[in-house]
Amino acid sequence: MTIYRSLAEVPADFGPSALTIGNFDGVHTGHRRILRRVRELAEQRGWKPSVLTFNPHPTRVVAPDRTPRLMTSPDRRAELMEEEGIRQVLILPFTEELAHLSAEDFVRQLLVERLGVRAVLVGDNFCFGYRQSGNTAVLAELGRRMGFETEVVHAVAWRGRVVSSSGIRRLIEAGRVSLAARLLQHAYALEGEVVSGRGVGSAQTVPTLNLAPTSDEIPAAGVYVTRTTDLDAAQAWNSVTNIGYRPTFGASDQLSIETFLLDALQGGTPRHIRVEFLWRVRAERKFDDAASLKVQILKDARTAQAYFRRVRAWTGRLPRQAPKPA
């Protein structure tokens, strides 16, 4: 995959392209349907399967008070898009100038003249142009005039629930990470640097990796079965992760994300990790002392180990999309 981060980087041969446009936060199952259709159409016509997305989120420029807490960084979105066969992604800086383009200028100047579109595929709620003056009907009319196809891919429903980024965010905020994983088709994850903690774990309970996440969307406080990956060494471990405020050691206003590895750590401490949240074990709670907390952590570890054994028994491999334990 090739990633471009500005119009200045876009080559003259970006097109001919089959292109989809959007924020694609989470790259959930509805997004994946669009991406697969882009790839399919591109393969049929000899075009390049492509995506136009934005950074920052457009609402940060036009309506900052409505900016959502995002689940995935632009680079992570691109990684997930590549799984569906996308070959090139333009992560376009969203600016006031771009926000003020009319719907027609957006299509002519950006899509046709710069990105060489032959087909544009979007969801049925797609809006574009100054003050969202354009919709799918406007896009189709502009396509007829400017020589590209327009295809609207309808929303995906799962057990009567329309799949949307906002709905998945609500699930994550409620700690329902296993259901979120079904709608995402991958486990929700936090990435970031491993930072120094207060030293309480290594001294009084169990040693942990303390994560400083780059994402704004944090699962509800509690203990989770997780899978942790060293992003620099591509090594992974089964793990248990606590999100919370360390009530056993006194009230704190600083959220901590602490991961206890169930497998032996080979080599030095990782510097950059991804923690995938598979299942919520319990809510965070206060214990009488550090010794009682350590007993509970080890019990949580056994629960997690049993979880991974069941998953292996069912699928023969570690989970990418976590099933709910029996």
Helix proportion of residues, in percent? 25-40%
How many structural domains does the protein architecture include?
2
Structural class by helix and strand composition: alpha/beta
Unreliable spans: 199-205, 322-326
Strand count, sense and barrel status of the largest sheet are:
6 strands, parallel
Average pLDDT score: 90
**CATH topology category name of the largest domain:** Rossmann fold
CATH class category of the largest domain: Alpha Beta
- N-to-C series of helices and strands: EEHEHHEHHEHEEEHHEHEEEEEH
Instruction: Sum up the overall morphology in one term.
Output: elongated
Question: Termini, distance in Å?
Answer: 39 Å
As laid out across the biggest beta sheet, the strand order is: 1-4-3-2-5-6
Q: What features would you describe in this structure?
A:
The chain has 326 residues and is an alpha/beta fold. The protein has two domains: 2-158, 3-Layer(aba) Sandwich (Rossmann fold); 164-315, Elongation Factor Tu (Ef-tu), domain 3, CATH 2.40.30. 32% of the residues lie in helices and 27% in strands. The chain has ten helices and 14 strands. It has helices at residues 29-45, 58-62, 74-83, 96-99, 103-112, 136-146, 165-173, 177-184, 200-204, 290-315; strands spanning 2-4, 17-21, 48-55, 88-93, 117-123, 149-153, 157-158, 161-162, 188-195, 209-213, 222-230, 235-244, 256-261, 272-282. The strands form three sheets. It has a six-stranded parallel beta sheet with strand order 1-4-3-2-5-6. A hairpin with a 4-residue loop joins β11 (222-230) and β12 (235-244). α5 packs across α6 (136-146) and α7 (165-173) packs antiparallel against α8 (177-184). The longest helix has 26 residues, at 290-315. The two termini are 39 Å apart. Residues 199-205 and 322-326 have low confidence and may be disordered.
